[in-house]
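#lab-general

N.A. 3:47 PM
ok so I finally got the sequence cleaned up, no stray characters, all 153 residues accounted for. can someone with queue access submit it? mine expired

B.Y. 3:52 PM
send it over

N.A. 3:53 PM
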Amino acid sequence: MNKAIITILFLLVAAFIGGFLFFYDPKPVSNPTQNDSPTAETQQKWESKIDDQANVTVTVIPTALSTDSKEWKFDVVLNTHSVELDQDMAEVTTLIDAGGKEYEPLRWEGTEEGGHHREGVLIFGPILPLPQSFELKITGIGGVDRNFTWRFR
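B.Y. 4:20 PM
back already:
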């Protein structure tokens, strides 16, 4: 009986080691530093900003902003229970750099005008050279202007 237990334990250990070797996929571990790429200083996590006025909540999160980005993208979510969200988002939005220069969006990719809940992506051309800060201004949602400001690190 001891031989049977030893044989079973040996087979279990062999199966475990064989399975580990079969499924193990070694990937190199990298620890990027600021000198690894020219855009390392521009790759950052962006804070979501929320503006809750005039019975409308607007949330904006920048998602793709760097010197490498061909387009700058901002996720936008609008929610209300009392206001009709019938604005053309590309018409009511402006991106403003730290020097006050204004940029119009290339397009809005999201839900159509109307309703009480909308979401989508506002897409702009990149601002180069990168400004120290920038502001996204959305006008007329619920009859008020909304300003969202971020800074590059």
